[in-house]
TrEMBL record:
<feature type="transmembrane region" description="Helical">
    <location>
        <begin position="6"/>
        <end position="23"/>
    </location>
</feature>
<feature type="transmembrane region" description="Helical">
    <location>
        <begin position="53"/>
        <end position="71"/>
    </location>
</feature>
<keyword id="KW-0812">Transmembrane</keyword>
<keyword id="KW-0472">Membrane</keyword>
<keyword id="KW-1133">Transmembrane helix</keyword>
<protein>
    <recommendedName>
        <fullName>YqaE/Pmp3 family membrane protein</fullName>
    </recommendedName>
</protein>
Length: 77
């Protein structure tokens, strides 16, 4: 990846839009990818229950964070 705003980061952000953490996985950041995927999946899963329906809010915010994080990532040299 070249850096922030590069074509690779745009593709990673699009990947994260569909599956949270996929953009980080495309960038080679396995731990961040796993963390985003698990946290968002748990929040959305809890929101699927009638009792914890409000959990879609933190799930959506963290999902958005995953997209922005993939788009703004800069590789360290």
């Amino acid at each position: 990846m070249s850096g922030q705003g590069s074509g690779g980061n745009v593709i990673a952000a699009i990947c994260s839009f569909f599956i949270p953490g996929l953009g980080q996985l495309v960038q080679g950041r396995i731990l961040a990818a796993l963390l985003f995927f698990v946290v968002v999946s748990v929040c959305y899963g809890m929101a699927a229950t009638v009792i914890l329906i409000f959990m879609w809010i933190p799930g959506a915010l963290i999902h958005l964070w995953a997209i922005v994080d993939a788009a703004k990532f800069r590789a360290r040299l």
